[in-house]
Design goal:
Protein name: ABC transporter substrate-binding protein
Helix content: 40-55%
Bound molecules: arginine
Main location: other
Number of helices: 11
Family: Belongs to the bacterial solute-binding protein 3 family.
InterPro entries: Iontro_rcpt_C, SBP_3_CS, Solute-binding_3/MltF_N
Strand content: 15-25%
GO molecular function: ligand-gated monoatomic ion channel activity
CATH topology of the largest domain: D-Maltodextrin-Binding Protein, domain 2
Distance between the termini: 47 Å
């Protein structure tokens, strides 16, 4: 609290200073514009200091390689990040009176972005694991997925034990990477390659540079649908990977976000979005 106050007053002071230096007019500039070149922490502070009626801005970090959770949509002629997570984020923001600014990065950079306050929250189909919980806070789970093996249709690679002596690709920093590292202990000769983007991983399987990939069913389904030479098979396990929203440790937003998630589950909005993005 103490720290925040000082950041706020610092932001306010520098705003005043900027107005003085630049002369008349500057003080009336919209702050969101000014904030765009600033790191998230400062921008948030600037946003909260905003004049009455002005929307506050939250920075959402994501890894937009995860259709249908979040991906780059180019169909309208411009590059837009869309998806299930984006719709949920927008709904929550609207309910709570925030503007959202999305920043796209590699999945492995998301938790560090929260730890250094470069983002106010992360939505990236991210699973709350005990390890991550040491570094960030999570909302309640809003959707679930299971791991699958994605391979070439003719490969006969559908079960973990068939991966002996094979190469597999997983996303860097994901729980699929963890699962692969775990498999390495029991599956002889398994070689794991970690890559930044889901698209690269699928490409590696398609070209045969790796034999298979571990990808969540919710995402594998779409990749396989658009790549007819591929197949995916769910890995038998009692485990499901929930998706939750991640926040910097001690973030004041967790509770409010949870309230809106609950509301969306009760008023049918969540089901509507699940239908929109996952039913094919
Ligand atoms: N649920 C998995 C995890 O938390 C994978 C999420 C990958 N998300 C993404 N946007 N690429 O590790």
């Amino acid at each position: 609290m103490k720290k925040r106050t000082s950041i706020l007053s610092l932001a306010f002071t520098s705003l005043l200073a900027a107005a003085l230096i630049a002369g008349c007019g500057t003080g009336n500039q919209p702050q969101a514009g000014a904030g765009q070149e600033q790191p998230a922490g400062q921008e948030q502070a600037a946003g909260q200091e905003g004049q009455a009626g002005e929307k506050k801005t939250l920075i959402m970090a994501t890894s937009a390689d995860y259709k249908p959770y979040e991906y780059h949509d180019l169909t309208s002629g411009k590059d837009e990040i869309v998806g299930f997570d984006i719709d949920i984020a927008n709904y929550i923001a609207k309910e709570l009176g925030y503007e959202i600014q999305i920043t796209d990065m590699d999945f492995g950079g998301l938790v560090p972005a929260l730890q250094t306050n470069r983002a106010d929250f992360v939505m990236a189909g991210m699973t709350p694991t005990p390890d991550r919980q040491k570094n960030v806070d999570f909302s309640d789970i809003y959707y679930e997925a299971k791991n699958t093996i994605v391979s070439k249709k003719d490969s006969n690679l559908t079960k973990p034990e068939q991966l002996a002596g094979k190469k597999i690709a997983v996303q860097l920093g994901s729980i699929q990477e963890e699962a692969a590292k775990e498999l390495e202990k029991t599956v002889q000769g398994l070689q794991v390659t970690s890559l930044n983007k889901l698209g690269e991983i699928v490409e590696e399987v398609k070209t045969g540079r790796v034999d298979a990939a571990i990808i969540e069913d919710t995402v594998a389904k779409g990749f396989v649908a658009s790549n007819p030479t591929l197949q995916f098979t769910t890995i038998e396990s009692n485990e499901t990977n929930g998706s939750a929203i991640a926040f910097p440790k001690g973030s004041p937003h967790v509770e409010k976000f949870n309230e809106v998630i609950k509301k969306m589950q009760e008023n049918g909005e969540m089901d509507k979005l699940i239908q929109k993005w996952f039913a094919q």
